[in-house]
Design a protein that fits this description.
Length: 564
Amino acid sequence: MMVKRSVTGSIARALAGIVMLSVLSTGLALLTLSGSLRDAEALNVAGSLRMQSYRLAWDASTQSADFPAHLQHYQHSLDAAALHNLDRFYVPSALNSRYQKLKTDWPELRQLLQTGDPLRYQQQVASWVGEIDRFVLDLQRYAELKIRVVAVTSLLGFIAIAALTFWTIRLSRRQIVTPLNQLVTASRYIEQGKFSYPPLNTALPNELGVLATAFTRMSGELEKHYQLLEKTVDEKTRNLTQANHMLSTLYECSLALAVNKLDRSALQQVLERVYQYEQLRCIEIVINNEWCVMQGSADSALEWHQLPLLKEGSSVGELRWQTAHRIPSPRLMQSVANMLARNAQIYQAQKQSQQLMLMEERATIARELHDSLAQALSYLRIQLTLLKRSVDNQPERAQKIIQDFDQALSDAWHQLRELLATFRLTIDQADLTAALQEMIASLRQQSQAEIVLNCQADALVLDAPQQVHVLQIIREALLNAIKHAQASKIDVEIQSLPNGDSHIAIVDNGIGIASLEEPHGHYGLTIMNERAERLGGVLSIRRHLPTGTQVTLAFSPQHKPPVS
């Protein structure tokens, strides 16, 4: 915006006008007053001419000796400098004409006085004095006129100066004071962070108009930057708050997984925290076909979102969720998925390590049994054979003792082989479901019976000692059904109860168990009960109607059995 009318120039011109008016009015008054300095002298001199005229008439009639001096004085008075000043262009022409007429008529009167004709002079002196009176009156009016001119000039100068001063003050208030006050008010508003200040007068064609325009534009830009800064700060604050909440959630999830072992309860705590933080409709996790934990209620009308639980390029499970209101944070969900995948892999590695340690101990015991007790039994069996050959012709009592001894030795040898098989049982997989399938596959080769396994995904989340006891109980029950029950179909069902306990049932369609009392020298059922006690569970064996036997085991995976 260009400055069309500078306020400083306007004020400077106004002040210059005031000074010029002051100088003009004052100068005119001083000039008029300077021209009136000898007005009193002129009036005095003009007034004295009347007295001197009568005095000359008296001197002429009395032949006074002072006549020449008085005549000369009269001429001097008529030619006085105060009266000569009337010969100016600004002096009224009537006054100047009367003075010139007096100077023109005086030589004639002087001639009458000098020629000794005083009588004629006396006859004309009255008209001469009357002419002098009119001259004095005009001279007085001229002096009064100059005084009036001074007064009018001073009054007009004062009025002009007052008007110009009032205009300057009004201009200053309208184009300087008021805009400056508006700028001060607007600056105070902006200082307080308020940009809705009273509008500035940007239409002024002076510097303050340019300043108001620049201030308005600047405040507008400042408001935009201020709003952008507030928006950025709010956004950063929200992001930091969200990040803090997300970190707190991740910390709580990590703490839940670090304090407890990886089980259904720990997974439930993790899902509950994510569910509450992200306000999800439903969230579910599936790991290694062992766990399937859900938080919330699924809605068939909503879309499922999922993330694979990847560790070293392989999937160990899946994290799925449904959202009803807002989209959850991708970083949080990915972090939770990575955390669960890492803990699942660590848990599997721990289980495999425990199983390897347990299997190594059992293999050691099996080798010791084989090298000691098995060798002793083999030696006794050989000696028994030699004894039988040497007493073939002995009485029946000896044969009966030998038979009983042979039967006891056979049973002991059979129990030892079973014990060796038990101790040499290997679990290649940390997943018990896979271990069961591997064990059942080996048993299918020993029998024509149909063995069906029905295992829930999260029913057998066990550590290594628990896993060995469960495998041995199921293996013993299957062996009994194959060898003694003459079953054609065996069902193995494993499920989780609502309270978190595990329930295992082995049902066959064989001839059914006759009694829970084991024959002498057999310890299979006893060992099964002992293993159930170590699991902290209850083992039940009963006939299954209409035919067959049902073996059930109920225990809590939270119970920690001692390592055997």
